[in-house]
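are you around this afternoon, could really use another pair of eyes. what follows is a protein written twice so to speak, once as letters and once as structure tokens for the fold. i want to understand how the tokens follow from the sequence so walk me through it. anything you notice is useful, everything is just below.
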Amino acid sequence: MRFELMASMMCADYGHLEQEVKNLEAGGIDSFHIDIMDGRFVANFAMSLNDMRYVAMTTSKPLDVHLMIEHPNNRIGLFLQNLRPGDTVYIHPEAEYHPSTTLQAVIDAGMVPGIAINPGTSVETVMELLRIVKKVLVMSVNPGNAGQMFLPYVGKKITKLLAIKEDMDFELYWDGACGADKILEYAPKGVKGFVLGTTLLFGKDKPYGETLQNIRELRF
């Protein structure tokens, strides 16, 4: 079974960031997930525009940019000019007065438009945006920090989204507390990709290639 694996780069070793990127690329990661946090939309500060630019220069793999910032439309050009056609940009609908305007800027720049849905955000409130985006990133934890526990009620939201994704023409991705059990359960149901952080990928004292191979060889 084929599913995408994305490395959550906020969990990487920043003392050796170039080598981290190269090791992940050699190990078979599909894309690099870049969490941009402004300390306002979420309480934490994480990666920056310069971090994103550095990863983009270091790898030929796609970038998966998750903007956890207030009013992303005010600064979207700064991010888009440092990305490549085909890279993905997710925004949070709650962070923008007119999220469809921001998503259109992403589309016009040749990027893949996406929205991230927080645990407390209902499917019904983003229904019209689902007709615009190509990717939906479901947060299984509250955004802002790595190492959180999975919120079980998010599973029902994923079931709702899986039921309408073909009609709406989007793909579904998982972000937060992603263990092997979640991949085993949700990949067969139609979740296309999983963001890997400290639960499965980082801080395991083994080569990334070995970890990624073990994940891809899970028995469904």
